[in-house]
Design brief:
Elements (H helix, E strand, L loop, with lengths): L2 E5 L16 H15 L5 E4 L14 H13 L4 E3 L19 H7 L3 E3 L2 E2 L5 E4 L7 H21 L2 E2 L2 E2 L4 E5 L16 H7 L5 E5 L6 E5 L2 E5 L10 H5 L3 E6 L4 E6 L5 H4 L2 H20 L10 H9 L5 H14 L1
Parallel strand pairs: 1-2, 2-3, 3-4, 6-9, 9-10, 10-12
Antiparallel strand pairs: 1-13, 5-6, 7-8, 11-12, 13-14
Helix pairs in contact: 1-2, 2-3, 9-10
Length: 326
């Protein structure tokens, strides 16, 4: 049948995150170059969203887009891309053609958009939906559920075509049951139900590695982001990884990728100084009976905003602004 090489959350950016060294972009391209060899023997490569970090057209240089095109051209088989929230303006898929760097990559012909079925192969692309409601997810996964129903009705095939395993590649806030975030997640069990409780799912958006797990008959996989842009414990200890999915078995195999150690990725000395500054600030605030103020990163500010219970539209706009200026 077919095998696909899968990875996501690449977050290419000319300007490195504040916690990372100036080699941030080069390090990501080196990791991507290492995936070219893994792609040999596969029938295609799929990037599961957030290819470029900045949503605002003009914040990504021609050089970075050109280097992404060159990586895509190095793959021995077709590269397909499922857009993520960082690839879109205001969560609109149409914005890809309005100056987004992903639009330039796709227009080059080096990669193709994966939104819906991938030709006749059993792969369905589900881009970032913005709002992951039951209605939106059910509609997005309806073709997959319909295929499963036809496979059950006709057994091993129809008109001489064999029904193999099926795969959804998406950019979505999915988590293993019990590990969901309070402010952003869509239940894996409900996602599985919308698929007809069968098949496989590879998802991006969540940068932490979840590995592979089964929920209500569906196999989920997220080996974590290719990028390591935030100074969190999981980024200090994990190795960027990708996965290969086999349509014969419906199983994922995770592969660690060559990557530099954390002390060459992050500005650890500066981070330690920031930590000491935070402790001194906390001591002062305790003395005046004030509230703790997080100053460690953009991510900590975003986490604080999400915890306030703002209107979802307001929260989304504020977070988008913070992510874009970071």
């Amino acid at each position: 049948m077919a095998k696909y090489l899968l990875m996501g959350d690449i977050h290419l950016s000319d300007r490195p995150p504040s916690s990372c060294t100036e080699r941030y972009n080069d390090q990501i391209f080196e990791i991507l170059e290492a995936t070219v060899e893994l792609a040999r023997g596969c029938d295609g490569v799929i990037w599961a969203g957030d290819i470029f970090h900045h949503k605002t057209p003009g914040r990504t240089s021609h050089q970075t887009v050109r280097r992404a095109i060159e990586i895509a051209q190095h793959y021995p088989e077709q590269l397909w891309i499922v857009p993520g929230n960082h690839d879109l303006s205001n969560d609109r898929l149409a914005s890809i053609d309005e100056g987004q760097p992903l639009g330039v990559l796709l227009a080059s012909g080096a990669a193709m958009l994966l939104n819906g079925w991938h030709n006749i192969d059993p792969v369905l692309g589900v881009p970032w939906l913005g709002r992951f409601t039951d209605e939106a997810v059910t509609q997005a996964l309806a073709p997959m559920k319909d295929r499963h129903a036809r496979a059950a009705q006709f057994g091993t095939g129809i008109n001489g075509v064999r029904f193999g395993k099926t795969l959804v590649v998406t950019h979505a806030p999915l988590y293993p049951p019990g590990l969901e975030l309070p402010y952003e997640h869509y239940p894996a069990s409900q996602w599985a139900a919308a698929m007809g409780n069968t098949g496989s799912v590879y998802y991006g958006h969540v940068h932490e590695a979840h590995g592979t797990y089964v929920t209500d008959g569906v196999t989920f996989c997220n080996p974590g982001a290719i990028s390591r842009g935030s100074l969190h414990e999981h980024n200090l200890t994990r190795t960027p990884s990708c996965a290969i999915w086999d349509s014969d078995t419906g199983a994922f195999e995770i592969f660690a990728l060559p990557a530099e150690p954390a002390d060459r990725v992050f500005r650890l000395a500066e981070a330690e100084q920031t930590k000491h500054t935070q402790l001194r600030l906390d001591s002062f605030l305790d003395a005046v009976n004030a509230t703790r103020i997080e100053i460690t990163s953009t991510e900590s500010v975003i986490a604080h905003i999400r915890a306030q219970g703002f209107d979802p539209d307001v929260e989304r706009i504020v977070i988008a602004i913070l992510e874009d200026v970071a």
